[in-house]
Amino acid sequence: MANPKATPQRSDWQRNHERLVATAAALVAREGAQVSLEEIAREAGVGSATLHRHFASRQALLEEVFRDEVERLRLRARELAAGDPRTGLVTWLEELTISAVNTRGLPASLAAGAGAGPSAGDTCHAVMREATVTLTDRALAAAAVRPGVSPDDLLALVEAVAQATEGDPPTALRLLGLALDGIRP
Amino acid sequence: MANPKATPQRSDWQRNHERLVATAAALVAREGAQVSLEEIAREAGVGSATLHRHFASRQALLEEVFRDEVERLRLRARELAAGDPRTGLVTWLEELTISAVNTRGLPASLAAGAGAGPSAGDTCHAVMREATVTLTDRALAAAAVRPGVSPDDLLALVEAVAQATEGDPPTALRLLGLALDGIRP
DNA sequence: CCAACATATGGGGTGGCCCTCCGGTTGTCC
DNA sequence: GGACAACCGGAGGGCCACCCCATATGTTGG
């Protein structure tokens, strides 16, 4: 289902693909991650069969919808990896939380990827995980956080908080703060 | 929709009601909180209309399914309120987390009640909230936790963790531990 | 420029879900 | 044991995910 660059699809394929992702982005932002797939297809002006042919699952569609935002976060993590290890990690977790809470459907998409193990490397969750591992390891190495803290646990916590407080950034940050006070050395 | 003791329902009503709750409990335990309501009705041997007449919503049905477990937890909180304030609160949060993670569908049910405000006083969430408020206030009064900690935040965190780690108690407790280390004075 | 063909499309069908209406049934109370 | 309110469940409407296959359309070699 993914698009191997080796065999470029027909132009209408690409057109419909972009249409679908754009429409999905708009509808997910307005109605959440569980929008009707048929509505997306209808709004995009294609048959529902086409949507299913382009995306094997709702999750596959969401992965593409959030690709840009995830990329933005990935680059941000790169930046943060250049500064202070402690504040870098904390800022990363905060910004990730804010993004997830403010981006309708993202928490669901991240959580969905979490259970899948390390199978597919390009899921939203996998990218966020790699960033979190890097920043956590740096903080651990600098003794900036209590030893034994696991990046997977941190990410799981952020995802849990984001999913539970979708649309309410202040609460999300309060809950995250509660948790973060536990990582002092 | 609740059963005011003043006008006892007909015997078949009561029979079907118990059947439905029992069947729902079994199916929710096996398949999770989003089981098909029609399947519950089918398995219970009643028409789907009857199920909808007895329970205005899926949530209403779940509330009854979990009534016993919630009552057990409530009594447990009472016990804990007699001991050390610090360990009482911590133990409560841990046991609540364990129960929620091990009881399929409970996290969803708790979370669903969370957004509803203080309208209905007998929801699962409301009961757990009252217990958590009591124990947290005690701990705050004894300066056993950092001031400013909110029982609602603690409960929200437990519910978030429980929902995100449903069926995986070790992870749930690790995440809770991460958060709990933040409540030292 | 055009034919032939792989690639892609979408209407319509299947089966499932939630929820409601309404004709029929069953407890209950006098 | 009859009358009446309470209760039941099959059937149907609206919506959804997913799939099949006859049709259309980009693409490419002559």
Helix content of chain A: 55-70%
Number of helices of chain A: 10
Residues in β-strands, percent of chain A: under 5%
Q: How many E-type strands of chain A?
A: 0
Unreliably modeled segments of chain A: 1-6
Provide the succession of SSEs of chain A. Answer: HHHHHHHHHH
What is the residue-mean pLDDT of chain A, rounded to a whole number? 92
What is the number of domains of chain A?
Answer: 2
The biggest beta sheet of chain A is recorded as: none
Structural class of chain A: mainly alpha
Could you state the oligomeric state of the chains shown? homodimer
The dominant shape of chain A is: elongated
Q: From the alpha carbons, calculate the radius of gyration of chain A and give it in angstroms.
A: 18 Å
Give the largest chain-chain interface (CB within 8 Å). A-B, 25 and 24 residues
What is the CA-CA span between the terminal residues of chain A? 46 Å
Structure report:
2 copies of one chain form a homodimer. Chain A is built from 10 helices and no strands. In chain A, helix 1 crosses helix 2 and helix 8 crosses helix 9 (151-164). Chain A starts with 10 loop residues before the first helix and ends in a 5-residue tail after the last helix. Chain A has 2 domains: 11-65, Orthogonal Bundle (Arc Repressor Mutant, subunit A); 67-183. Chain A is an all-alpha fold and 185 residues long. At the A-B interface, helix 9 and helix 10 of A face helix 9 and helix 10 of B. The first copy, chain A, binds a DNA duplex (30 and 30 nucleotides) through helix 1, helix 2 and helix 3.
